[in-house]
Design goal:
Strand order of the largest sheet: 1-2-6
Radius of gyration: 14 Å
Number of helices: 1
Number of strands: 6
Shape: globular
Length: 115
Amino acid sequence: MKSQTVAEEYYALKFGERGGIIRDMIVFEGPDRTGHLMTIAIGKSHGNEKCVEVPAEVSCDSRAGDRGIRLNTDFKFSSDRFKIFVNHYNKRFVCAKRIDVNEGWGMNLTIQCQA
């Protein structure tokens, strides 16, 4: 059986071929999930915390959402600060919590994590 790339697995999950659901857009880099970087689009949030599901377990730098580290180009120089974390119980959920103020954010927050 041919092994799937992360992008192929995302497609399978996104479009129901495996019964999974992806709530937000996620873009992948690298041919497989081992030792590669995964770009994760968390997006905007009305609350000060938002989580997205990814198709593989990841580990993320807690500062991956901060200025100069995050990947999104909108609000690139914004002083918004985030704590990025992986859900303790389900490592396929990546979360961003805004820590400079107790409110949401308008940028399309995009970060990179290790798959």
